[in-house]
Amino acid sequence: AFGMGVDKPDIRLVLHVSVPESVEAYAQESGRAGRDGKPAWAVVCTVLHDDIDVRLFLLEREKPDEGWLTRHLEALVAARVEQPHRFAISEGERPQATLLLSQLVERGFAVAGSRERSLEAVTLRRPLIPDDAKEILQDILRRRTAKLRRFDAMRGYLETRSCRRSYLLGYFGAAESAGRPDICCDRCQPGMFQATPARAVPKPARALPKAGRSQASPLRAKAGAASDPLPPGRPGGERDEKAAATLQALLAWRRERAVREGVPDDDIVTMQELQIIAAARPGDSGALRRLGVLREPRLAVFGPEIVAAVQMAGRSAPAAARRPRPQGRRV
Question: How far apart are CA 16 and CA 274, in angstroms?
Fold first, then answer.
């Protein structure tokens, strides 16, 4: 795939070998094909969930550190005009340092010189007041949110089960034409592409444990004896009722997320993983991480939502546990 600067009318094929970062990027790159009005093809080659997880992981790594940005903006507010202000920046901080510098240059507060490109030194051309610093911080955070939203739309395009052409038209607010073209997309005419439509790759079947060996899985062992999940409905006191209520809340969250993404429930989080989380009831992201059930990038993507579901269940579970049980009459 390629972008600007290519203006050949007779390109017949544009091939994406990785997931585009946005629908806008995909449309601009695939739009290089067929400019002479003759049939052309745009193909995305991807293993959906693997490639999407990688892209989400990279986006998470690019997440701006609000505390870091605030400290450096406060230092720039106190800095003198026309005098280099130096920063000590680690290698991992360079991406967000570049974001900050680009905002300063874009707004006319600084000029990017040879040393300033990595924010090792910034020379302000005019004073930076606190209101300007706050606006710059908010704009950086907004841009990151917008980037995630654009990628989520691209993910929706890849995973949609309906017409891809209609998806693109709807995304850009364009009206549907009166008639569908003879050749539309792999969702409308899968046989024409001599391949099955994009789908989630099934997980490999797990081997059954051999007789005589412990049935406990590594995940269950890692969670510890205190976190041993009990199935809902099994008698075991208040702890079981709380675990069951938490599990139901997690199942409801998983169903909603799976429907939203158009994937099977187990592609989000497996039942075994949910049972361990429900039994442990982690109160924050750190506790969830220590369980060892979820790893990056799923921990980064689903962790906050899981913790929120656990906390919501925790607020309602105690009331259910204290509710008196109906007493049967002895005959």
Answer: 35
Q: Are 107 and 136 contacting, i.e. CB atoms less than 8 angstroms apart?
A: yes
> Looking up tokens 């040879």, which residue turns up?
114
pLDDT tens digits, residue range 161-210?
Answer: 889 999 999 999 988 877 777 778 888 877 666 544 455 445 455 444 44
Max Cα distance, the chain (Å)? 94
Over the chain, what HEC string results? CCCCCCCCCCCCEEEECCCCCCHHHHHHHHCCCCCCCCCCEEEECCCHHHHHHHHHHHHHHCCCCHHHHHHHHHHHHHCCCCCCEECCCCHHHHHHHHHHHHHHHHCCCECCCCCHHHCCEECECCCCCHHHHHHHHHHHHHHHHHHHHHHHHHHHHHHCCCCHHHHHHHHCCCCCCCCCCCCCCCCCCHHHHCCCCCCCCCCCCCCCCCCCCCCCCHHHHHHCHHHCCCCCCCCCCHHHHHHHHHHHHHHHHHHHHHHHHCCCHHHCCCHHHHHHHHHHCCCCHHHHHHHCCCCCCHHHHHHHHHHHHHHHHHHHHHHHHHCCCCCCCCC
pLDDT at 5: 67
Residue 16's beta-bridge partner residues? 44
Cα(84)–Cα(115) distance, integer angstroms: 10
**By C-alpha distance, which of 109, 65, 117 is closest to 87?**
117
Residue 56's Cβ-side half-sphere holds a number of Cα atoms within 13 Å equal to 18
Note the residue count of the chain.
331
Amino acid residing at 96? Q
Instruction: Using the Cα atoms of residue 180, residue 186, residue 188 and residue 194 in order, give the sign of their dihedral.
Output: positive
Q: Give tens-digit pLDDT for 225-253.
A: 333 444 444 444 556 788 888 999 999 99
The region of weakest confidence among 21-35, 54-68, 163-177, 275-289 is 54-68
